[in-house]
Amino acid sequence: MGRISSVFKADGVETSDRYSISEWWLEPHTQGPGPHSHDEDDVFYVIEGTMSFLLDDKWIDAPKGAFLIASGGMKHDFENRSDQRAGLLNFSIPGGFEKDMPGIVQWFADHPPGKAGK
Fold first, then answer.
1. What is the pTM (predicted TM-score) of this model?
2. Which one is the CATH code of 4-110: 3.40.50.1950, 1.10.760.10, 2.60.120.230, 2.60.120.10?
3. Per-residue pLDDT tens for 55-73?
């Protein structure tokens, strides 16, 4: 997805749709998917660098080891505002998020991620 990559570590088939786990990497100064919400809970764990998260209307800079939750229905986003590549694990509960990935990949092809703000 341009300056963003993602790989699923566990999908709905493997977890009986109870959850899915994906790993996301953003190059330096890369916007994420944009503010959005959905019914599923998202749990984020920063595995490298510092990722900036929008939770409701507040941006939070989260360094390696940070753990955040965006409950179902909460507006959220993430982006890498730093000078280093940053990565996170995303736990989506319940599972099935991976079924949306072809549309998400196409959306990023049509709307390449821009430069993240500070």
1. 0.89
2. 2.60.120.10
3. 999 999 999 999 999 999 9
